[in-house]
Amino acid sequence: MKKILLSSVVIGLLILTGCNQTTTTTSKNVTTTPKKVAKPVKITGIRKSDLNKGSANLPVVKYHETAPIPGQVKPFEKSFVTAPPMIPHSIKGMVPITAKQNMCLNCHLPQNAKQLGITPMPEDHFIDNFENGKKVKRVAGSRWFCTTCHAPQANIPLAVENKFESLKGKAGLK
């Protein structure tokens, strides 16, 4: 008796579900089901405007009063030991970095940096993560696009409050 009752309920639900489907017939006698349209969601970010409008409404950031010359600007202190260093000079004319061109290498390859007295690329930039950690003679593919990790430093107002506290001071480190 329970099986018959349960089977009847399931069949009834299937029939009701089928009856609730809206269908339309076109002039070619093809039956289609109309698509449900979701309500648009207004998404905004730090820029306080619609993100779907593209990059035209991004705020203009002035990094320095005058474009600093590479090698003549003191780098900002790192927030934590493993933080990638910030770029202390203008990158105008050096980006975009492409698969064929990376202007950063002109100065920051270890052999060039030593002669120029600037920060060289560390050894880990020559270990290719795509080749199982193999040490390579060229810059590793995973490290090629410098601005993925390194950003130009700037004294600008924060867009979002930052409550980061370095552990250096708390641990008595310098």
For the biggest sheet, the summary is: 2 strands, antiparallel
Question: How many distinct helices?
Answer: 4
State the end-to-end distance. 80 Å
Number of strands: 4
CATH superfamily of one domain: Flavocytochrome C3, Chain A
Overview of this structure, please?
This protein has 174 residues and is mainly α. It has a domain at 79-156: Flavocytochrome C3, Chain A (Flavocytochrome C3, Chain A, domain 2), CATH 1.10.1130.10. It contains four helices and four strands, in the order αββααββα. The protein has helices spanning 2-20, 105-108, 110-116, 167-171; strands at residues 24-25, 31-32, 127-128, 134-135. The strands form two sheets. Strands 1-2 form a two-stranded antiparallel sheet. A hairpin with a 5-residue loop joins strand 3 and strand 4 (134-135). The longest helix is centred in the N-terminal third of the chain and has 19 residues, at 2-20. The termini are far apart. The model has no long low-confidence stretch (mean pLDDT 76).
Topology of this protein?
Blueprint: H1 2-20, E1 24-25, E2 31-32, H2 105-108, H3 110-116, E3 127-128, E4 134-135, H4 167-171
Antiparallel strand pairs: 1-2, 3-4
Core attributes:
single chain; 174 residues; mainly alpha; Flavocytochrome C3, Chain A, domain 2
